[in-house]
Write a structure and sequence with these properties.
By secondary structure, the chain is mainly alpha-helical. It has helices at residues 17-20, 26-33, 38-43, 58-71, 76-83.
Length: 89
């Protein structure tokens, strides 16, 4: 019997990142090989706990710069736009 699915785009499908991102993806290997927590110690003195705006997580910022240089992207804005939907970051 032939069934035709209607409104598939409205379905909710639960998946984990490990199901979506291939195990051998380069960025996944980088994330497994490097513990980026050391960046918090290096940048702590540049952030205030009592004043200023909420900050961007320094690890996220570092990863964006890494992606920018790795992919040869010219600007941070373009890097953010191109990597907005990448699950492997």
């Amino acid at each position: 019997m032939f069934n035709r699915e209607e409104n598939i785009k409205d379905e909710i499908i639960l998946m984990t990142l490990s199901e979506i991102v291939p195990k051998d993806h380069f960025l996944k290997k980088v994330a497994e090989a490097i513990d980026f927590k050391f960046i918090y110690d290096l940048t702590e003195k540049y952030y205030s706990l009592t004043s200023g705006r909420n900050s961007l997580d320094p690890v996220v910022l570092f990863k964006l710069v890494f992606l920018k240089d790795f992919y040869g992207i010219k600007s941070m804005r373009e890097t953010i736009i191109k990597n907005r939907n990448r699950c492997c970051i």
